[in-house]
Amino acid sequence: MDDKRTVKVSKYVSKHLRHQPERIGLTLDPHGWVEIDELLSAAAHHGFALTRAELDHVVAANDKQRFAVDGTRIRANQGHTVPVDLDLPEAEPPAYLYHGTVARALDAIRAEGLRPMARHHVHLSPDRETATRVGARRGRPIVLSVDAGAMRAAGHVFWISANGVWLTESVPPRFLRLP
């Protein structure tokens, strides 16, 4: 499977497991899972045939580990805009986490902090390098430091997804170090 096909399959699967399952007739269970055979069948029925081998390759090769497989089921690890409960346990964050963004977002972040926007949670990275890659998807990246230890002490809850992305409901401005 070449890189172009890998990216195409990954984007297709991500779109339908995170944002628009109904577009191809899928129904996610309350925790975001769907049977792999149902996904493959629905994709083929809607003009995007993919094999189990291609899907397995995308799951294994995805640098961000966006998907989880549990037996005969698959789900996206985080980033949903459709209602799901990932059933993640609360986690004790490190002292600092990081968020990659771009300059045009800074005024809103200064005023409102980090909000989940269309997603269920704010996504935070465990290191500056990852946050830099995240921010670079939208332009020249700016990395913000989040005082996660102080947030936790103030009662904010954190979760960590299966692929190491830290999640929280929001990050108020007072917990951010902005450029």
Description:
- The protein folds into 2 domains: 3-76, RNA 2'-phosphotransferase, Tpt1/KptA family, N-terminal domain (Arc Repressor Mutant, subunit A, Orthogonal Bundle); 97-177, ADP-ribosylation fold, CATH 3.20.170.30.
- Helix content is 33%, strand content 18%.
- It is built from 6 helices and 9 strands, in the order H-E-H-H-E-E-E-H-E-H-E-H-E-E-E.
- The protein has helices spanning 3-19, 36-45, 52-61, 106-112, 128-136, 148-153, and strands at 34-35, 67-70, 73-76, 97-102, 122-124, 141-146, 159-160, 166-168, 176-177.
- The strands form 3 sheets. The protein has a 3-stranded antiparallel β-sheet with strand order 1-3-2. The protein has a 3-stranded antiparallel β-sheet with strand order 4-6-9. Strands 5-8-7 form a 3-stranded antiparallel β-sheet, with no helix packed on it.
- It starts with a helix and ends with a strand.
